[in-house]
Amino acid sequence: MLEKVLPADGDRRIVVALAGNPNAGKTTLFNVITGLRQKVANYPGVTVERKEGHWKFAGDEVETLVIDLPGLYSLDATSTDEVIARDVIQGGMPGLPKPDIVVVVADASNLERNLYLVTQLSEFRVPVVVALTMLDIAAKQDLVINSAKLAELLGIPVVPVNVKQKIGLKELRKAVLKSAFAVGAGNDRIPATLKDESIHLSLSGDAGANAVIFERYRFISDVYQQVVQAGAHSEHPTFSEKIDRVLTHKFFGLLILVSVLLVVFQAIFSWATLPMDLLDVGFGSFGSYVGSSLPPGILTDLLVDGVIAGVGAVLIFLPQILLLFLFISILEDSGYMARAAFLLDKLMSRFGLHGKAFLPLMSSFACAIPGIMATRTIENKRDRLATILIAPFMSCSARLPVYALMIAAFFSGQSIFGFISLGAVLMLAMYSLGIAVAVLAAFVFKKTILKSPPPPFVMELPPYRLPNLRTVLQNMLSRSWLFIKRAGTIILLISMLLWGLMYFPRAASISHASPESQSAFQLEQSFAGSLGKTLEPVIEPLGFDWKIGVAIVASFAAREVLVSTLSIIYNVGDEGNEESPSLINAIRNSKRADGSKVWTPLTALSLMVFFVLAMQCMSTLAIVRRETNSWSWVIFMFGYMTVLAYCASFLTYQGGKILGFT
Amino acid sequence: MKPINPVRAAANLAELETGMTAVVKQVKGKGPVAKRLMEMGIVPGVKVRVVKSAPFGDPIELRVRGFSLALRISEARKVEIMEKAV
Questions:
Q1: Which of A66, A79, A498, B75 is spaced 20 to 30 A from A343 at the CA atom?
Q2: What is the ipTM of this complex?
Q3: Cβ contacts of B48 on chain A, cutoff 8 Å
Q4: pTM assigned to the model
Q5: Cα-atom radius of gyration of chain A, to the nearest Å?
Q6: Residue A624 has what pLDDT?
Q7: Could you give the CA distance from residue A212 to residue A202 in angstroms, rounded to a whole number?
């Protein structure tokens, strides 16, 4: 039977586009039929994931390329996802062949709305095959679906599949090949009702478009009634509705949300510490091993201090990023993420943000990079940009060592009212300052440069499902891989550049000098040192001298590099960390030419404020470039954050002096 | 046996009390919001039940065509419902 429709030789290659509503089981089907033969990239100019894979099938020799389209409710081109899906199906996407066939995944437990996309797709001039999923869930809801009748009424093949148990995949393959190679397919598939010319004639304008939507649903309701038999229990509350009585409860829902977030952040902050320390030690010893086994010279120094130390400083955040993406994937795949957005939308919309912005912003407390990558769930471009622009104000974990060093050096052991530790209060104040500025900035952006009517919130609350392990892992790994790729390219380049700034020009070596004072001397002589000295008049009103200027320049690699740079400048060697007594003493005792102390508690406070607000992170900028696909947003972000940081530090230092603090 | 849903008269979905069911008369207005609502199946004649509202009273959750849909009060106002019972 099948052999008859296949061409005897030659053109045995087909392209399949995989479409479907979000949560219809499309990704699971794609993963199962393509296995690990997948390629994940982005469509040009947008951050919509472009996934392709090969569907190998024992028993036929047809080379089958599968393009996984983004999850869609409709093809009317109102969102970026829809525009892209439409372009791909019509063959208008550069670099992608026009699909020979569209497989549309339809969720049987939610058939009416899923049939909307099916109906719309069958109006295109391309063969369509329906893969009917979730029949087991439909059965639990006491719905019996006659798929043969459905195929007959729609005029297109309908194949019931159960992806987890691998049922129906063979039949799906046969149906796909048959339709793809059938002569003249796709020309006459439009449902009878929608062929009515009067509707399409009135297509112009909203009223016409809405009339078409109405007609499609009239057709669907008619089909649905003939195909689905609803049993006595079909109107009973579903499993998800029962769970939601608790999870989106006005009081318990919020309580549970807070607990979930607590677990996520506990994991990111404490469980990730061990692998992060291991990576830190690993990069350190790898660096010394390379340093000792290669002949001394510029290349060795570049490799050890530039490449390994620089990239290592960024890659130690990988455990946090992996963990965060693991949680995000689980929350998304289980259906909980939509509930979190539902619970928090009112709160977030007061600041002009979408409910979905909450999680990316919370994630940014660990690291702005995964946070910014997580904004992909926000459909509206302006909402997404507003979230990206404020995400770095959340105090990330790289700022912690900076705060900790400043507090340990100048505010330790002090308390307010005798029992509240001043350090804890300051720490909290820094986090709060970041949040307050972020909220304010979002508000201003949404009123000015990102002004737009509030985007529709209209959002499905998908049924709860046990997350699919494979989908979750694949999600987590592909997103983390993007981060590693960044570290390997742009971050590597900037690390080498920063290294060069501190390494050149070479200072003459001083005889009898300790290695510590030699490297401090080198740093002073270097371009970075000159840069610090050039910057000194600018940063002097903030209470900073050129040495702090050098440390600020160097911390562009990653904020916590401030600590190690200060160790080098103050001659305490590379081993200085935020708890190192020698570094703390060196900072406390450092003096200016006139004998006055460089650092006062006020200087420390000013520096902390600067670090809360300044865009001191090349990795974040690299990710923003990637996610916005524009250098202008990168420059804007760097600019406005630096200006804000400068002004806030200025106010802190000068205001503090006026108020009589030192 | 189908459970009986109490129904009361209301002009639009935002005014419909939690737990009540109504029949959609029309989706007012133009633009992406009205279109998205219709694409999700909120078209004249369809039955809609208000399941609950979020902790701060907004957004609300609807049950329509066998699935759950969240939307803001401002969006629910665009959906006119029949004055009469289901």
A1: A79
A2: 0.87
A3: none
A4: 0.79
A5: 30
A6: 92
A7: 9
Alpha carbon of A353: minimum distance to chain B alpha carbons (Å): 13
- Predicted pLDDT of residue A269: 65
Tell whether the model's pLDDT for residue A434 goes beyond 80.
yes
Please identify among residues 45-104 of chain A the ones whose CB lies closer than 8 Å to any CB of chain B: 73-74, 76, 78
Q: Which CATH class is domain A2-230?
A: alpha beta
Residue A18 backbone phi and psi in degrees, to 5: -105, 115
Interface probe, candidates A83, A458, A460, chain B, greatest B C-beta count within 10 A:
A458
Asked if B65 and A214 come within 8 Å (Cβ–Cβ), the reply is no
Q: pLDDT tens digits, residue range B25-57?
A: 999 877 788 888 999 999 999 999 999 999 888
- The Cα–Cα gap between A561 and A587 comes to 16
Nearest residue to A210 via CA among B47, B67, B32: B32
Buried b (16+ CB within 10 A) or exposed e, A625-640: bbbbeeeebbebbbeb
Residue A53, phi then psi, degrees to nearest 5: -160, 170
Q: What share of chain B is helix, strand, coil (3-state, %, to 5)?
A: 20, 35, 50
- For CATH 3.40.50.300, list the domain ranges present in chain A: 2-230
Q: Cα separation of A435 and A425, whole Å?
A: 15
Please report the pLDDT score of residue A62 as a whole number. 87
Angle of the A273-293 helix axis to the A318-334 helix axis, nearest 10:
140
Q: Find the mean pLDDT for residues A9-23.
A: 83
* CA pair distance B35, B52, nearest whole angstrom: 23
Q: What is the CATH number that goes with domain B13-81?
A: 2.30.30.90
Judged by phi (left if over 0) then psi (alpha if -120 to 50, else beta), residue A415 lies in beta
Give the amino acid at A257.
Answer: L
Residue contact B55–A343, C-beta within 8 A: yes
Find the farthest-apart pair of alpha carbons in chain A and give their distance in angstroms, rounded: 96
Looking at residue A500, what is its pLDDT?
A: 86
Whether residue B4 lies within 8 A of chain A, CB to CB, comes out as: no
Structure tokens given for A127: 């063969």
How confident is the model over A493-520, as a mean pLDDT?
Answer: 77
Parallel, antiparallel, or unpaired for β B47-53 and B60-64?
antiparallel
Give the tens place of pLDDT for each residue, A324-365. Answer: 788 888 988 898 988 998 998 888 888 888 888 887 888 788
Q: Is the pLDDT assigned to residue A519 strictly greater than 80?
A: no
SS3 B68: strand
Of A217, A240, A458, the CB nearest to B36: A458
Checking if the pLDDT of A514 tops 80, the result is no
Measured distance CA(A255)–CA(A266) in Å, rounded = 16
Q: Give the integer Cα–Cα distance in Å for A403 and A423.
A: 9
User: Which of A342, A358, A380, A452 is the mutation pick for testing B, counting most B CBs within 10 A?
Assistant: A342
d(CA A395, CA A427): 10
B35 to A76: CB separation less than 8 angstroms, yes or no: yes
Q: To the nearest whole angstrom, how far is the Cα of B54 from the nearest Cα of chain A?
A: 5
| Predicted local confidence at residue A648, as pLDDT | 96
The residue ranges of every structural domain in chain B are: 13-81
Structure-block tokens of residue A46: 């947008």
Q: Which of A427-431, A489-493, A650-654 has the highest mean pLDDT?
A: A650-654
- The predicted structure's pLDDT at residue A46: 67
Nearest to A78 among B27, B36, B74 (CB): B36
**How far is the alpha carbon of A473 from chain B, nearest alpha carbon, in Å?**
27
Integer distance in angstroms from the first to the last C-alpha of chain A?
90
Chain B residues with CB-CB distance to A461 below 8 A: 61, 68-70
Measured distance CA(A398)–CA(A377) in Å, rounded: 25
Query: Minimal Cα–Cα distance from B64 to chain A, Å?
Result: 9
Q: Which of residues 197-256 of A touch B (CB under 8 A)?
A: 206, 209-210, 213-214, 217-218, 232, 235-236, 240-241, 244, 248, 250-251, 253-254
